[in-house]
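Q: A reviewer asked whether we had any structural model of the full assembly, not just the individual parts. We don't, so I'm hoping you can provide one. Inputs are below.
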Amino acid sequence: MAAMPDSLSALAWLVEAGADEAIGDVPVDRFSARAPARPPTEAKPHPASPVREAVKAAPSAPSDSIGTAMELAKAANSLAELRAALEGFDGCALKRSATHTVFADGNPASRILFIGEAPGRDEDRIGLPFVGRAGKLLDKMLAAIGLDRTTAYITNVLNWRPPDNRDPSPEEAAMCLPFLRRHIELVDPEVIVLLGAVAVRHVMGRSDGIMKTRGRWLEYNVGRRLVPVMPTLHPAYLLRQPAHKKLAWRDLQAVEQKIASLRSPED
Ligand code: URA
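A: Here is a predicted structure for the entire assembly that you could use as a starting point for your response.
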């Protein structure tokens, strides 16, 4: 993915979120005064955070929330700051029905990044990605190539559970994406594995179907470095279609080889 100037990437986010008008009747300086605070929503068990105070006044229009997400994500200079920014961000409606903000699990220093879709019921309850049935299968997939949660890092496109595990809307995903892109920058991975079609669509902007994209190396631009990306089948899909585990196994073997080649002293 080619690097885009800030204004162009901002426009891309707005289009992805469904914005279809370039101008309003009155110009708005989105970098100075904020619109009035939204009415408080019901009490949530999310922990209090100083960043939450800073973004309490987040405007309710989706494009403004995406702008806020971009500003917050860009300002985060560590994973701890990014997590705090995300926990303080109230622009995504999914957060209102979620119990936890699900940030990540595993070891960021491993630089092997797995990205799934969104927390499910178990993940929302516990606050960590991939801890339910699909997570157990993911653990087996990791083990198959010699990895575990101390040697791999795991996150999702969405940080809040969509109610009833429905598909996230493009707008909901667009509000989480600035945080995910900054998350990827901060982890600075050597290899990215995308679990399922939703991750491929939102990280790589490709909607041509996971059966077409899986098993082929793509590249993701992180800070002017191209990182190899392997799309593969989502473990939840594999629970429903166990006959396709052999395809995921092939993809994971390619990942294992890639990690070995990147770390071999001859390279
Ligand atoms: N499915 C996902 O994509 N992510 C999780 O964290 C759990 C299930």
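A: Points you may want to mention in the reply: The two ends are 24 Å apart (CA to CA). Residues 1-21, 23-44, 48-59 have pLDDT under 50 and may be disordered.
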